[in-house]
């Protein structure tokens, strides 16, 4: 199947998934809680994407859902409230929009189409044996959906409550959010250039990748942290539950995504062990000198 046809199929799948979610939000039963309405719609859309993943035997159908869901839910919460637009909500939506455009564009640029699939997905399914269906549904589709939803809880707090006027923490949140997108954009470009001319067995340690082994994950954590700060700026007393999403996101990257990436890099490029010794795992800092 050509790349164009593959992208068209995934695009249609996402339109159907978000269309079904929208139908639920407009005509489905009203739970009286906008966050619960959004969560149910999110899960329904995820199940539609999962069905598409099984139909195409490719769980990478889920990958772009990660970036299109946040602006969809944030837009729904924004339009469903009676408070009208206020400065914090508009600033928050701008940050989410910039993040979504960059991440979706990155996927559109890099995904070669079917039958290519993120290498982690078949690895997880193969390890599960007879339970591969459950692992595909829960670990690959539903767990990320719930973590992203938790990450959006601060956005829900901002978009459904008037809050006070903008303050210094909003400025910090905006700088961190936009800075996160810029960092990821630069890191992705550096990685593409490296892949175009790397030598066999060579490990990436150029530019931002010389300061952090995973600058793209660091940028992702920065983005979700910025949403948390927006929430705290509008409702400081609720900080204790607004941080849950960013903590869960960090735990997923640190406990699952990064270890899998590290192990694969060591297996494919033994020189990566030297990179591990010198370059920080996540938070950027100057690398140690070679011994």
Task: Explain this structure.
By secondary structure, the chain is an all-alpha fold. It has helices spanning 3-27, 34-56, 65-80, 87-110, 120-128, 132-151, 153-159, 168-197, 215-234, 239-242, 244-268, 272-278. It starts with a helix and ends in a 13-residue tail after the last helix. 72% of the residues lie in helices and 0% in strands. It contains 12 helices and no strands. Helix 1 runs antiparallel to helix 2 (34-56), helix 4 (87-110) runs antiparallel to helix 9 (215-234) and helix 5 (120-128) packs across helix 6 (132-151). It has one domain.
Can you give me a brief rundown of this structure?
Helices cover 72% and strands 0% of the residues. It is mostly helical and 291 residues long. The longest helix has 30 residues.
